[in-house]
């Protein structure tokens, strides 16, 4: 899944997004509430908070490499490493 | 937060200081009833938070209840210094032999409260201090040692007051000092404090100002006095624009983007932080710019909050462009504010490059911030451009646009 | 040298587990030679660590753990608890207290200041960002993360005192860019009553050999500038002072508060124009623009000493 804000886009591997554990981990990790856990336990991206991303990398640290991608739309879609 | 006279008198009364048998009302008919109850001549006083009531016709003397009603009706309609009265105070006209002054204020240099007393009351104490300095007594008192009667006694005695007047005045000044401290006042003043024919004293007018930061710990008193939580009691009532600014700031708890004050110019300001806002507002005016508003950003607000503030300013009638400027930031982030103000332009259907006259916020996360600004073609400046130069550039651009 | 703090200063952070305090601790540990943050206090959090700093329930525990007196404390607890936290620090022998918290009623501030005076301790703030000795140590959030602080502050001969935290950095950055470093910069806070005023810090700068001139940032409201003018006149200070006055527009708007809690025109003496007059009478030059400050202070120092000061590199002790 991918949700685009004006400045930031968040992309999460579709299969991984179904994992309730990952959903919980990411929800707890993000300081600006970009992630939430859906009713079915899977991951949801909160669209209105996507542009609040502070580039803190906590979601990247909390998940396996490549599962979560943070893209800077103002920088030709550069990936937050 | 300033109190109306009728509230201030109630505070004085609760502190155990004698007051007259006054009544407060918002209704002329009720003023008549109060006058009837008092029986005898009365004074009708407009309840406004501004000086110069007497000159403006806001204080009138009545011989009968009918006259009291007529005066009240008139005064209730009378605007004074831009303020409509909250109501009228109906006061028995006391036979006063002499008017005194008693007040407590903070001394920021000594960092202690100071009690002030004068046997010359009824006029401005500053004037007495200038013309008859020996008639004004002052004394600081400790913030942590217990308050004791002798302190008030020394102040009063230093003005030449002795005899039974001294002994009757001491508890009044002590109680005033106590109420000042206990209620977190920044001003507590009884002026005039009248001496009646029988030698007793009574407070004839009072001014009280409670520190805003302390309102939270005096909720009971404020509720009992009928002071609403929303009442700011500022020198000027908040405008709808300013109230909208408060709402923007209240939307979440991250940082500050608000403290808006409305002006009537064409250059919208999105500025910070506290000192930076003051500096920038001066600088814009020094270059002949006409600010549409004052505001403050600080403490690292959310994108949504910065966006809300920028939108509010952009939508203000008469605003052609906004200038986004701050002193060097270390907590607030350049990129977050940049996102907020650009988003505001986009959501309102404006071109950020057109609407943002200049963006001058150097500091934390400036590399990311400048990338965003470049992408949208917004003119920006780093710390090598002074606050003054940035303000000058903003004014230049808006003047160019106006031509 | 510096005033108030140096590389050896030990301090604690009261309220260390709060979001902003965690950042503040990190910044202080990272800056310069690394501050000796010997403990943090948050009641109920004994045994935790914040960036390697041990957390205690009480100041007494922190002192016991440290094994000797702790010199300073940065207080970042909410306004309702600040007075108690400061009393606790003072009664446990802390000498220097930086109060970051905003919106503390002045009665509480006055009580803290009076107790500090009785015990021979000093308070900086409230509503301030603290103290920085460039490249050596910072105590408080002043200048922000170590990297940002290093960009703005450089060592040198100018003492900076400011009622605005942000403007302390803006002015120091301007001085640094002009080759004039700072001996110590102090953000004294924007409230009506504060622990240390300009006049109360002047004797420290006066005694500091590194300091050759003073730059202050000031605003309408209060009598602090009049107090400074009097101090300078009465003590025949060796240090030239350049002041920057913000908020001149407020003279037309009595009774309204802008910027900081203490920034309000309540009487004639509070106005910017009155303050400028008083400062000028005491020989303190008032700059119209921040960018004019470096040249003004440079020439004022040259005038007093007969030699150009702070020219060239921003060396530590060019006395």
SSE topology sketch:
The complex is a heterotrimer of chains A (81), B (403) and C (319).
Chain A: E1 2-4, E2 8-12, H1 14-17, H2 20-29, E3 35-37, E4 43-45, H3 58-61, E5 68-72, E6 78-79
Antiparallel strand pairs in A: 1-2, 2-5, 3-4, 5-6
Chain B: H1 5-14, E1 23-25, H2 28-38, E2 42-46, E3 59-62, H3 65-76, E4 88-92, E5 96-107, E6 112-118, H4 125-131, E7 137-140, H5 149-157, H6 163-182, E8 185-196, E9 201-203, E10 206-210, H7 219-225, H8 240-250, E11 256-262, E12 267-272, H9 274-286, E13 293-298, H10 303-314, E14 321-326, H11 334-347, H12 352-355, E15 356-360, H13 366-375, E16 380-381, H14 387-402
Parallel strand pairs in B: 12-14, 14-15, 15-16
Antiparallel strand pairs in B: 1-4, 2-3, 2-4, 5-6, 5-8, 6-7, 8-9, 8-10, 11-13
Helix pairs in contact in B: 2-3, 5-6, 8-10, 9-14, 10-11, 11-13
Chain C: E1 10-14, H1 19-30, E2 36-41, E3 49-50, E4 53-56, H2 59-66, E5 72-75, H3 79-91, E6 96-99, H4 106-119, E7 122-124, E8 130-133, E9 137-139, H5 146-152, E10 155-162, H6 165-177, E11 182-187, H7 198-207, E12 213-218, H8 224-235, E13 241-245, H9 272-281, E14 285-287, H10 293-305
Parallel strand pairs in C: 1-2, 1-5, 2-4, 5-6, 6-7, 10-11, 10-12, 12-13, 13-14
Antiparallel strand pairs in C: 3-4, 8-9, 8-11
Helix pairs in contact in C: 3-4, 7-8, 8-9
């Amino acid at each position: 899944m991918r949700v685009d804000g004006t400045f930031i886009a968040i992309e999460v591997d579709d299969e991984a997004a179904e994992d309730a554990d990952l959903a919980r981990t990411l929800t707890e990790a993000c300081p600006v509430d970009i992630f939430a856990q859906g009713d079915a336990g899977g991951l949801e991206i909160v669209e209105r908070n996507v542009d609040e991303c502070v580039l803190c990398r906590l979601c990247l640290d909390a998940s396996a490499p490549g599962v979560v991608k943070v893209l800077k739309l103002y920088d030709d879609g550069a990936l937050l490493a | 937060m300033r109190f109306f006279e009728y509230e201030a008198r109630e505070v004085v009364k609760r502190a155990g200081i004698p007051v007259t048998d006054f009544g407060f009302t918002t209704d002329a008919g009720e003023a008549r009833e109060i006058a009837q109850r008092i029986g005898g001549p009365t004074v009708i006083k407009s309840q406004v938070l501004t000086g110069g009531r007497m000159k403006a016709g806001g204080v009138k003397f009545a011989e009968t209840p009918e006259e009291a009603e007529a005066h009240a009706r008139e005064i209730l309609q009378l605007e004074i210094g831009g303020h409509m009265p909250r109501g009228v105070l109906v006061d028995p006209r006391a036979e006063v032999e002499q008017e005194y002054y008693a007040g407590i204020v903070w001394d920021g240099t000594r960092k202690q409260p100071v009690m002030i007393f004068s046997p010359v009351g009824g006029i401005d104490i500053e004037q007495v201090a200038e013309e008859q300095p020996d008639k004004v007594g002052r004394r600081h008192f400790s913030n942590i040692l217990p308050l004791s009667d002798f302190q008030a006694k020394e102040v009063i005695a230093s003005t030449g007051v002795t005899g039974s007047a001294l002994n009757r005045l001491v508890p009044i000044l002590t109680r005033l000092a106590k109420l000042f401290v206990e209620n977190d006042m920044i001003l507590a003043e009884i002026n005039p404090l009248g001496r009646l024919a029988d030698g007793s004293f009574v407070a004839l007018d009072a001014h009280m100002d409670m520190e805003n930061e302390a309102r939270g710990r005096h909720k009971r008193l404020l509720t009992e006095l009928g002071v609403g939580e929303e009442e700011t009691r500022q020198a000027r009532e908040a405008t709808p624009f300013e109230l909208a600014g408060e709402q923007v700031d209240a939307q979440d708890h991250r940082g500050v983007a608000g403290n808006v004050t409305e002006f009537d110019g064409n250059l919208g300001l999105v500025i910070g932080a506290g000192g930076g806002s003051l500096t920038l507002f001066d600088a814009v005016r020094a270059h002949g710019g006409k600010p549409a508003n004052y505001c403050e950003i600080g403490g690292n607000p959310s994108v949504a909050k910065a966006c809300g503030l920028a939108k509010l300013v952009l939508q203000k009638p008469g605003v052609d462009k906004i200038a986004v400027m701050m002193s060097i930031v270390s907590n607030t982030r350049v990129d977050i504010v940049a996102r907020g103000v650009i988003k505001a332009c986009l959501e309102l259907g404006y071109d950020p490059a057109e609407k943002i006259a200049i963006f001058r916020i150097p500091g934390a996360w400036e590399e990311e911030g400048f990338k965003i600004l470049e992408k949208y073609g917004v003119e920006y400046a780093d710390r090598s451009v002074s606050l003054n130069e940035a303000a000058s550039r903003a004014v230049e651009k808006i003047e160019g646009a106006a031509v | 040298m510096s005033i108030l703090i140096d590389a050896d200063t030990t301090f604690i952070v009261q309220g260390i587990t709060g979001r902003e305090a965690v950042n503040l601790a990190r910044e202080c540990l990272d800056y310069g030679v690394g501050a000796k943050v010997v403990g943090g206090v948050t009641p109920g959090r004994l045994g935790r660590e914040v960036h390697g700093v041990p957390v205690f329930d009480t100041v007494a525990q922190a002192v016991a753990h440290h094994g000797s007196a702790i010199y300073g404390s940065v207080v970042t607890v909410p306004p309702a608890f600040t007075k108690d936290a400061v009393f606790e620090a003072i009664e446990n022998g802390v000498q220097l207290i930086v109060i970051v918290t905003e919106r503390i009623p002045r009665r509480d501030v006055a009580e803290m200041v009076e107790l500090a005076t009785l015990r021979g301790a000093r308070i900086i703030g409230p509503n301030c960002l603290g103290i920085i000795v460039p490249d050596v140590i910072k105590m408080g959030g002043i200048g922000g993360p170590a990297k940002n602080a290093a960009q703005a502050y450089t060592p040198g001969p100018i003492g900076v005192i400011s009622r605005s935290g942000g403007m302390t950095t803006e002015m120091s950055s301007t001085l640094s860019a002009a080759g004039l470093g700072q001996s110590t910069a102090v953000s004294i806070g924007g409230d009506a009553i504060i622990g240390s005023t300009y006049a109360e810090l002047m004797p420290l700068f006066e005694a500091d050999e590194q300091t050759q001139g003073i730059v202050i940032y000031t605003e309408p409201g209060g009598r602090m500038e009049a107090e400074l003018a009097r101090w300078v006149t009465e003590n025949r200070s060796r240090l030239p002072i350049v002041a920057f006055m913000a908020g001149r527009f407020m003279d037309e708007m009595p009774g309204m508060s802008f910027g900081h809690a203490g920034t309000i025109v309540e009487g004639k003496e509070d106005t910017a124009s009155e303050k400028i007059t008083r400062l000028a009478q005491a020989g303190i030059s008032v700059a119209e623009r921040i960018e004019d400050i470096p040249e003004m202070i440079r020439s004022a120092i040259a005038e007093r000493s007969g030699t150009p000061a702070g020219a060239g590199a921003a060396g530590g002790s060019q006395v």
